[in-house]
């Protein structure tokens, strides 16, 4: 007996998305917290360690605190822009280590390594948001790691 191969029926999913007028006129806006929740659920499914998940939450919390003070009109993750992130880098560069903790507060600023770790978290989350169609553009695409500008001999 000869096998019959069943060919794909209907239009392909990608074709349907491109031709659908409903998806063109309607987009969902996610807050930074909602995007973080989606990101964390995906990372749990990937098997990321609990400590790493905690660091992701902490690093995005620093950004959220900055935005609430210096950009109170910021609402959605799609509003993140390269210029806003560069402002955040400048803010981080000038921020005192352990600011707000009277017992631990230092006169030094955050280290270059600390800033770059926070940027790496943000870069990972922004890339994820673009891949998952949470946001249309990746604001971290052209943002490089922070450099202290020191030349060591």
UniProtKB/TrEMBL annotation:
Protein name, per record: Phage integrase SAM-like domain-containing protein
Keywords noted in UniProt: DNA-binding
Residues annotated as domain Core-binding (CB): 30-130
Signal sequence coordinates: none
Alphabetized GO MF terms: DNA binding
InterPro entries per record: CB, DNA_brk_join_enz, Integrase_recombinase_N, SAM-like_dom
Organism: Peribacillus simplex
Superkingdom, taxonomy of origin: Bacteria
């Amino acid at each position: 007996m000869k096998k019959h191969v069943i060919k794909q029926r209907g239009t392909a999913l990608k074709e349907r998305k491109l031709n659908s007028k409903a998806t063109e006129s309607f987009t969902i806006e996610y807050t930074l917290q909602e995007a973080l929740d989606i990101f964390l659920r995906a990372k749990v499914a990937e098997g990321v360690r609990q400590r790493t998940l905690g660091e992701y939450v902490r690093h995005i919390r620093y950004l959220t605190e900055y935005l609430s003070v210096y950009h109170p009109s910021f609402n959605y993750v799609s509003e993140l822009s390269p210029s806003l992130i560069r402002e955040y880098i400048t803010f981080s560069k000038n921020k005192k280590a352990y600011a707000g903790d009277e017992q631990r507060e230092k006169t030094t600023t955050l280290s270059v390594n600390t800033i770059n770790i926070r940027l790496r978290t943000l870069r990972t989350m922004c890339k994820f948001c673009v891949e998952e169609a949470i946001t249309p553009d990746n604001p971290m695409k052209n943002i490089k790691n922070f450099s202290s500008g020191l030349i060591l001999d």
